[in-house]
Specification:
Blueprint (H helix, E strand, L loop, with lengths): L11 E4 L2 E4 L3 E2 L7 H12 L4 E3 L8 H9 L8 E6 L1 E4 L2 E4 L3 H15 L4 E6 L8 H13 L3 E7 L3 H8 L4 E5 L10 H9 L3 E2 L14 H9 L4 H12 L12 H8 L8 H8 L5
Helix pairs in contact: 2-3, 3-4, 7-8
The protein binds NADP nicotinamide-adenine-dinucleotide phosphate.
C-alpha cells in the first residue's frame, strides 16, 4: 500500500502486532447496497486499512457486505469485529457465555469469508459472566487459530486489568469524542500500556455543527467542525485509532483530510477545554 495514501497522513498505530493507519472506518450502518460496497472499495483505495464492524450491525449485514467486498483478498486490511451481544426478538441482550461466543465467532468467520478474524472484540461485558470467563473463551479461539488478536469494548480500567491477566488485550473501544470524555482514564491507561484506544462515535454521531467554538476554530483552518474533531482526537493521544462512521464518500474523503489540519498548541488547548473530563 502506498505510504502517502490519505489515510496514512495521520500516521500509524500499533494494534498488537499489526500496524494500521490511524484513520480507519466505522461500518455500523453498512448494508449490502451498491453505494455501501463502493464506499468500502473507495476507503481501501484511499489507504484505510482498519475497518470496524460487529455481528449485530444491520442484523449481520455489515459483516457479510464487508466479507463480500474484501473477503480474504485484502490481507493488508484489518477487519475488526465484535461479538457478545445476542440478537433477540425484543432487541439485543448481552451474552458473554463461552458457548455463545464460540458460535458467534463461527458466524463472523463465515460472513467475513476469512479463516481467522484479525481482531475480535468482546462487545460488552456480560454482568452475569465474569470477564475472565468470556476472555478465556476468546483466548481458546485464538489458540485454535480462529481469532488472531483480542480486544474489548465498553470496559472500565478494572475490567481491562482483569482481562489482561487472562489474555493479551490489544485494543479497547469505548465512547469518546471531543464533547464526551468520560472514558479519559481508560484512554490514558491504554496509552500507558501500548493498547490501541478506538473511540466510538468520534464525531459525536455527526452532531457537531452547533458547537460554536469548534466551528469557529475550524473556520480559521478552512476545515469543518467534523474534521477538526477528528484532528483533535489524533493529537489527544498516540494510542487513538479512529473509526468515523459514514455512508458518504464525500464525508469519507473529508474525514481522511482531517490529518492535514496544522492544529497549533494554543487551539488544541482551547478545544481541550470544551468538555469537562
Ligand atoms: N463498541 C460500541 O459499543 C460501539 C457503539 C457505537 C458505534 N461503534 C463503532 O463506532 C463507529 C463510529 O460511531 P458512529 O458511526 O456511531 O458515530 P460517529 O462516527 O461519531 O458519527 C457518524 C455520523 O456522522 C456523520 N458523518 C460522518 N462523517 C461526517 C462528516 N465529515 N461531516 C458531517 N457528518 C459526518 C455520519 O453521516 P454520513 O453517513 O452522512 O456521513 C453519521 O451520521 C461505528 O461505525 C461503529 O463501528 C461502536
Amino acid at each position: 500500500m502506498a505510504q502517502d495514501s490519505p489515510a496514512s497522513h495521520a500516521g500509524t498505530v500499533r494494534v498488537g502486532d499489526r500496524t494500521v493507519n490511524r484513520l480507519g472506518l466505522g461500518a455500523n450502518r453498512i448494508t449490502d447496497t451498491e453505494s455501501a460496497r463502493a464506499l468500502l472499495e473507495r476507503a481501501v483505495e484511499l489507504g484505510v486499512n482498519f475497518i470496524d464492524t460487529a455481528d449485530v450491525y444491520q442484523f449481520n449485514e455489515s459483516e457479510s457486505t464487508i466479507g463480500k467486498v474484501l473477503g480474504s483478498h485484502h490481507p493488508g486490511v484489518v477487519v475488526a469485529t465484535k461479538g457478545g451481544v445476542a440478537r433477540t426478538s425484543d432487541g439485543g441482550s448481552v451474552d458473554g457465555h463461552p458457548e455463545y461466543l464460540r458460535q458467534a465467532v463461527e458466524g463472523s468467520l463465515e460472513r467475513l469469508r476469512v479463516d481467522c478474524i484479525e481482531l475480535y472484540q468482546l462487545h460488552r461485558v456480560d454482568p452475569h459472566v465474569p470477564i475472565e470467563e468470556s476472555v478465556a473463551a476468546l483466548k481458546e479461539l485464538q489458540e485454535l487459530g480462529k481469532v488472531r488478536q483480542i480486544g474489548l469494548s465498553n470496559v472500565s480500567v478494572g475490567e481491562l486489568e482483569r482481562a489482561r491477566r487472562v489474555a493479551t488485550i490489544v485494543s479497547v473501544q469505548n465512547r469518546f469524542n471531543i464533547l464526551q470524555r468520560e472514558q479519559e482514564s481508560v484512554l490514558d491507561y491504554c496509552a500507558q500500556h501500548s493498547i490501541a484506544f478506538i473511540p466510538w462515535t468520534p464525531l459525536h454521531r455527526g452532531n457537531l455543527a452547533a458547537e460554536k467554538t469548534l466551528s469557529e476554530v475550524a473556520g480559521r483552518y478552512g476545515a469543518t467542525p467534523h474534521q477538526l474533531a477528528l484532528r483533535w482526537l489524533i493529537q489527544r493521544s498516540p494510542a487513538v485509532l479512529l473509526i468515523p462512521g459514514t455512508l458518504s464518500v464525500v464525508h469519507l474523503e473529508e474525514n481522511l483530510g482531517a490529518a492535514e489540519i496544522p492544529l497549533n498548541d494554543e487551539d488544541f488547548g482551547t478545544l481541550s477545554r470544551l468538555a469537562v473530563p
